[in-house]
From TrEMBL, chain A:
UniProt-recorded name of the protein: ABC transporter ATP-binding protein
Highest rank taxon of the organism: Bacteria
Transport keyword on record: yes
Cellular component, GO, one term: plasma membrane
Organism: Aquicoccus porphyridii
Lineage: Bacteria, Pseudomonadati, Pseudomonadota, Alphaproteobacteria, Rhodobacterales
Keyword set includes Transport: yes
Residues in ABC transporter domain copies: 4-245
TrEMBL record, chain B:
A single GO BP: amino acid transport
Species this chain originates from: Aquicoccus porphyridii
Keywords per UniProt: Amino-acid transport, Cell membrane, Membrane, Transmembrane, Transmembrane helix, Transport
GO CC terms, sorted: plasma membrane
Protein name from the UniProt record: ABC transporter permease
Length: 257, 617
């Protein structure tokens, strides 16, 4: 069965159709990329899947359960983890405390007023830190971390509640090229080991073609292509969208001639 | 019909003065992001100056209006001095520092005004040429009121012209939207800020000066006007001048008619209107969400448990406190009860403000509700001390749950303003419900049970409740609940993304802080034997803010040190003449010289002595 099923997703902002009738499936353990030029509707699409925006039309189902109208925090509880384009962490806490917080929330201990937060779920948190190779930084203040480390920490936080689906919005934005490759290799390995499904948006084509199992291409709100890296590379429509309107210009010249 | 027209005109005349003060406050906030408590002081000084200058030219029309304008200009100059000597140094400090610094200015100006003009109220002259009344639809309307009705829109038009037709005005509007961008474009921000502050101060001075024919000039003018001015600014939208005008008219006219139906409403009405407006439009009628560029804040260090040596020192101090009634005089043990009450109050405020990031300008409300709850339980229900001590915090919890539900829907300075509104509503209700709360006369004769009636015995009651409460709040700070509050403060987006219910969590944090303030209030009322409405007032709330600030907001120990230092200084200084002046100077000294507070200072001292390792907080 598919982990995520999206059918006929549509969102308008005033007169602009930001996302127009988008449908796709995401299988178990699949690493699916959503690409497209700026303004194509990637983030809008994302925000409808994770509950921050309510679509005008369409369906989103997670493991068969309807997600439309469900609050973001409930969607998290249904097994969807997410990372942000600009990292969002608790800067006044240490690295391991950030992960402990996610575990405390997952185990519904947030209103416990008497236990010491730093002593809860420590072993689980250490295991997650080992997963992203940050065990030697457990006690460091989050505010001192390098950006690439923050990104890895966010990945560990997102994995804490053992999600079935991970939504990653431009996971490598703002990182150095060598760090990008390392982060995506790590993510790909975790996807393979844990059987998590991942939907991610990305601008860096090297990252996309190196790791994605399948690629969706959005342009002006609509899905224009879907396939493996090879198929997408050879698709003339995608080439036209990405390499500019030279052909379109040429065609109209020809029409006038 | 004529009567209603007269009410309307009175309302509009009141609106003019209120608009002048509020628009100055709004301009200052818009450009500098400072919530200026001293604005009421500028208004008061304007009135006193106008009174003195106009008295030099009795009966002269030119002398009157010249005096009014001269007063406004001198207040503008006073604003320039305050800006250049104090505020310019703290533009990059957290908002709370700026707020408390301006409160220090309030205290200093209050005593300086008293030194110059004396403590008696001054009755200003009538405006020459405008000293009679016109009959409009059969009702007498003072001519001066009609002049005021014209002055408000005239000033609004003048400001509009300056803001839309001059380069400087355009810069002010640009800075209100995004001051960082204005700085990046190479504008000299220091002069822009000074000029905006001078304009705002002069407008407040003008607002005070034109009031002299209508009301007595007194030393209470500053704090009595500031609450209404805040309300007008918030309703209109921070930084919006036309919003301030609409809000001033709305409040004044509503008030003029509401008093006909329900004469006691005038104290509460502005705050009720503000609460309603903020819930419907969180940034006020004409306000927009400000740019995210506030003062850059240094990230806070992670919480750490005390080292074993520090724990021993702390235990020793607590034991010394427990043993103190045997060793010190009764007078000192009464003072120590005051310190413990203030400490629990400050710790509860720090819990919601420091950990939760919810700055409250009205935390005294829950202290006061706790105190009144217990006092009323004794005087009306005839309960004894222990049950009354349970009723008080429950009443505070109920009040905090009620008002907190509204407050947590907002954030930043708007949240702070709504807490102020909540406190003023509670204060107004307490002040006016003569038959239940005794009004201004308070409730007297609330003494401890006979077994706890000696100073020593009551010391231990206070010790158990206050030290217990402080211990509990510290425990909660280290618990998942306290970590959750800090997490929301750090990043509400991340908190939601790990599945937290952000608003509910903040609501519960607000309620817990209010309940513990109520516990402090209960200990307070039985130690004093009486309670008066000023326990819910602005001054009491600001005392709490000063304690937290004195101690340093970033340390859990901060409010404990701050409250201790505050009560001891207050006890010493309040016996001196001009204690407000001295106290204001101390506040400014701390803000300018030791921005991390007493806890920061002690921390530096410990490090210098090698008693504490680097990196511990």
């Amino acid at each position: 069965m598919n982990v995520l099923e999206v059918r006929g997703l549509t969102k308008r902002f005033g007169g602009l159709v930001a996302v127009d009738d988008v449908s796709f499936d995401l299988g178990k353990g699949e690493f699916l990329a959503l690409i497209g030029p700026n303004g194509a509707g990637k983030t809008t699409c994302f925000n409808m899947v994770n509950g921050y925006l309510r679509p005008d039309r369409g369906e989103v189902r997670l493991n068969g359960q309807d997600l439309i109208g469900v609050r973001p925090r409930k969607i998290v509880r249904m097994g969807v983890g997410r990372t942000f384009q600009i990292t969002r962490t608790f800067l006044s806490m240490t690295v391991i405390e950030n992960i402990q917080m996610a575990l405390i929330s997952h185990h519904r201990r947030m209103f416990d007023m008497l236990s010491r937060a730093t002593r809860l779920y420590r072993d689980e948190a250490e295991a997650l830190l080992r997963l992203v190779s940050m065990e030697d930084q457990a006690g460091r203040a989050c505010s001192e971390l390098a950006y690439g480390d923050l990104k890895r920490l966010e990945l560990a936080v997102a994995l804490a509640p053992d999600p079935t689906l991970l939504l990653m919005d431009e996971p490598t934005a703002g990182m150095a090229p060598s760090e990008r490759v390392a982060l995506m290799e790590l993510t790909a390995k975790i996807v393979a080991d844990r059987g998590v499904s991942v939907l991610f948006t990305e601008h860096d084509m090297d990252v996309v073609f190196a790791h994605a199992h399948r690629i969706l291409v959005l342009n002006r709100g609509g899905l224009i292509a879907e396939g493996t890296g090879e198929e997408i590379r050879g698709n003339p429509l995608v080439q036209e969208v990405y390499l500019g309107g030279g052909t379109v210009f040429g065609e109209s010249e020809a029409d006038h001639a | 019909m004529g009567f209603y027209v007269a009410q309307l005109l009175t309302g509009l005349a009141n609106a003019s003065s209120l608009f002048l003060i509020a628009c100055g406050l709004s301009i200052i906030f818009g450009v500098t992001r400072i919530v200026n408590f001293a604005h009421g002081s500028f208004y008061m000084v304007g009135a006193y100056l106008a009174y003195s200058i106009v008295a030099l030219f009795p009966g002269s029309i030119l002398g009157f209006w010249g005096g009014v304008i001269a007063a406004a200009l001198i207040v503008g100059l006073l604003g320039l001095i305050v800006e250049m000597t104090i505020l310019r140094r703290i533009y990059h400090a957290p908002e709370l520092f700026q707020l408390v610094a301006t409160f220090g200015v309030v205290l200093i100006i209050q005593d300086m005004t008293q030194a110059v003009w004396g403590a008696e109220d001054k009755l200003g002259p009538r405006a020459p040429g405008l000293d009679s009344a016109l009959r409009i639809m059969g009702e007498p309307i003072p001519e001066y009121d009609l002049a005021l009705i014209l002055i408000g829109p005239a000033v609004l038009a003048g400001i509009w012209l300056v803001f839309h037709r001059t380069r400087w005005g355009v810069l002010v509007r640009a800075a209100t939207q995004d001051r960082e961008m204005v700085g990046a474009l190479g504008v000299n921000q220091a002069w822009l800020f000074s000029a905006a502050f001078v304009l705002g101060a002069a407008l407040a001075g003008l607002g005070g000066a034109i009031q002299i024919p209508r009301e007595a000039v007194s030393l209470q003018m500053d704090l009595s006007v500031i609450g209404d001015a805040f309300v007008v600014v918030v309703i209109g939208g921070m930084g919006s001048v036309s919003g301030a005008f609409v809000a001033a008219v709305l409040i004044s006219v509503l008030n003029a008619f509401a008093v006909l139906v329900f004469p006691q409403i005038s104290i509460v009405l502005p705050f009720v209107v503000m609460a309603v407006v903020l819930i419907v439009r969180p940034y006020g009628l004409f306000g927009k969400e400000g740019s995210g560029h506030g003062a850059p804040t240094e990230p806070e260090q992670p919480l750490r448990l005390l080292s074993s040596r520090a724990t021993l020192v702390l235990m020793a101090l607590v034991f010394a406190l427990a043993a103190s009634p045997v060793m010190v005089s009764d007078f000192a043990s009464i003072l120590l009860v005051d310190v413990m009450v203030a400490t629990l109050f400050a710790v509860s405020l720090h819990f919601m403000m420091g950990l939760g990031g919810m700055v409250s300008f009205g935390h005294a409300a829950y202290f006061g509700v706790g105190a009144y709850g217990a006092a009323m339980a004794v005087s009306y229900l005839g309960l004894s001390m222990i049950p009354a001590m349970i009723v008080g915090p429950l009443a505070a919890a109920a009040a905090a749950l009620f008002f907190g539900w509204f407050c947590v829907r907002l954030s930043g300075v708007y949240l702070a303003m709504l807490t102020l509104a909540a406190a003023q509503i509670l204060w107004g209700v307490t002040f006016q419900s003569q038959e239940f709360t005794g009004g201004d006369d308070g409730i007297l004769g609330i003494w401890p049970a006979s077994w706890a009636s000696s100073d020593q015995a009551y010391f231990y009651v206070a010790f158990a409740l206050c030290i217990g409460g402080i211990w509990f709040l510290r425990r909660v700070a280290h618990s998942p609940f306290g970590y959750g509050l800090r997490g929301i403060r750090d990043s509400d987006v991340r908190a939601e993304a790990i599945g937290m219910d952000v608003k509910f969590h903040q609501w519960m944090g607000f309620a817990l802080a209010g309940t513990m303030a109520g516990v402090a209030g209960v200990v307070f009322v039985f130690s004093k034997g009486s309670v008066f409405p000023d326990v819910l007032g602005i001054a009491q709330s600001v005392d709490g803010l000063i304690m937290v600030l004195l101690g340093g907001i970033h340390a859990l120990a901060g409010p404990i040190l701050g409250a201790g230092v505050f009560v001891l200084i207050e006890d010493w200084v309040s016996r001196l003449d001009y204690w407000r002046f001295i106290f204001g100077m101390i506040i400014l000294g701390v803000v300018l010289l030791a921005p991390d507070g007493v806890a920061g200072g002690v921390d530096r001292l410990l490090r210098a002595l090698g008693l504490r390792r680097e990196g511990q907080a």
